[in-house]
Design brief:
Elements lengths: L1 E6 L6 H16 L4 E6 L18 H12 L2 E7 L7 H9 L9 E8 L6 H14 L2 E2 L4 E4 L12 H23 L1 H4 L3
Parallel strand pairs: 1-2, 1-3, 3-4, 4-5, 4-6
């Protein structure tokens, strides 16, 4: 099984820090699971223009292929202007919906106000519903106060939520894999 962590921004580093922490927890507690980090700032991704995803080339095709080949996901985004990043939305637009169907997603968001956690409930979860993905019931929202000046996670309660989310997504993915015939349809 392959878990893909997505840092859904082209600026800043806080979402990547939290996504990587979840990946590290999964790797530590479940070494049989392959983990990979996709940092959108490392790629030159084209804007979605509505064409078939298979017709993109270069970095865009590589990113589409990486996302499509994963079995489950941890997706992180900073919250800008009360919304997910355009880079993450563009990624969702580029990937064919069937590539994400029946796959587990866990969400992480970072932001400067404590109310921005609502973006997970009001934007990310509805997007995953469109994809017919399975969403972990827990999530991690990290406020700027949860980080040290060196961008390290220092809040113990947040680190507990990171661990809980890592276990939730693994449990869900393993359970779904064991019961694949129950939810698969053509």
């Amino acid at each position: 099984m392959k878990l893909l962590g997505i840092s859904g921004t082209v600026v800043g580093s806080k979402p990547k820090v939290v996504v990587q922490k979840v990946l590290d927890q999964v790797k530590q507690n479940h070494p049989e699971i392959e983990v990979e980090l996709l940092d959108l700032k490392d790629y030159n991704i084209q804007f979605c223009d509505g064409r078939d995803p298979s017709t993109y080339t270069g970095d865009t095709k590589e990113v589409i292929d990486i996302v499509s080949s994963a079995d489950f996901y941890i997706i992180g985004t900073p919250i800008f202007q009360g919304s997910i990043t355009g880079a993450l939305k563009n990624l969702f637009d580029l990937v064919h919906p069937k590539s994400l169907r029946n796959k587990v997603m866990g969400f992480i968001a970072t932001g400067g106000t404590y109310q921005h956690y609502l973006v997970i409930e009001n934007q990310l979860k509805p997007i995953s519903s469109y994809f017919r993905a399975f969403v972990a019931p827990g999530f991690v929202y990290a406020h700027n106060d949860h980080f040290s000046p060196q961008n390290e996670l220092v809040d113990m309660e947040l680190l507990e939520r990171v661990n809980s989310l890592s276990e939730e997504i693994v449990f869900m993915q393993k359970t779904l894999k064991e019961n694949k015939s129950y939810y698969e349809y053509s």
